[in-house]
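Write out the bound-state structure for adenosine monophosphate.
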Amino acid sequence: MRVRLRNPDRTVEVEGPCTVAELLDHLDVLPHTVLVLNDRALVTADHLLPADAEVEVRPVISGGAEGAPRCAVCRAPAVLEERRHRAAWCADHLADHVQNQIRKAIDHPPGLPAGERMCSYADRLLVAVSGGKDSLALWDALTEMGYRVDGLYVGLGIGGYSERSREVCAAFAAERGLDLHVVELAEEYGYTTPSGAGAAGRSTCGVCGLSKRYAFNRVAVDHGYDVLATGHNLDDEAATLLGNVLRWQESFLARQHPVLPATGANQVRKIKPMYRLSERESAAYCVVRGIDYVVEECPLVDGNTGHELKAAFDLLEAASPGLKAQFLFGFYDRQDRLVDPRAEEEVELAECGSCGMPTTGAVCAFCRQRELIVQALPVRTGAS
Ligand code: AMP
Ligand code: ZN
Ligand code: ZN
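---
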């Protein structure tokens, strides 16, 4: 069906049939803030809209023109406005809004059969925390929502930045009585991100990414967790998708999803429950929940193309609020039709001859990289 949204004026295609309530939920529009018209007649929440319906969603609450914005739920003065949602919230309802979006991500992941969730209350969850806003907001929210969830911090050895990050994660866990695993690359594997990149002659972001992904899975497997969660947000995932489309990286497009199932032994399911939330929403959540997080960016990130894409996409989003969400969620909704399943090759997974973790070759990419690094480094420390 064609749905016209106002302020700003735009049209989106939504698959039908569905009820008005389901449509508004899909669009993240609060029902009491709009009127819904089908063929120019008013319709109520339970009205079934046919697949070919022409729908208009018209805002009824004037937005802030005459004075300070008010909370969309309780009308108290708002602390955060999101143009994408055409809504604003007070501190309490902002926290609810963020948790509701995480709830929605977990209970209704895109493209999965109804009833299949990212994770359940029976699962043991491990959340990878960097000390930044997204992952700490996620740990806080999942804990508040009643999930069993421990944290994992990977020390990358990026000087004072890494030290401050570890301290913030440790303080967060201690204040709330939560369990945090800490893995220091230097102690465990004998290199840091900067020394490893220098020794391997690879980019710091490349060495860092491979080391983190490996450590996340390794700790989750070694300690018997069912699920690994990361704090990737809407801005991250939309920029990644844009990059994958611009370069037509079909195998990445086939694998980009907020839920990646474990496909064999020594693997855990990977989930991204923050994919519906912007960086702004997650930062604001930390502020209203009293979460201390590391505001500074990684000092090694310069020239990382992901950041350029984010900046470019921010310009588009400023001109058309909601574009990022429309791009990302729209992709997930039609991923199975847009991506040729042949792009995701059926690969045989075997055990790495060195560490036993899953790999497509004889020795996994992490062990090969580590071998390259420790051969070039003067001192070799740590276990395998
Ligand atoms: P980034 O790759 O820095 O954008 O981070 C994406 C997600 O990876 C974060 O939200 C965290 O969940 C996780 N992460 C990043 N760095 C670390 C780290 N040093 N230790 C643990 N988790 C991390
Ligand atoms: Zn409120
Ligand atoms: Zn290995």
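---
The two ends are 56 Å apart (CA to CA).
The pocket of zinc ion (ligand 2) is lined by residues 71, 73-74, 76, 89-90, 92-93 (CB under 6 Å).
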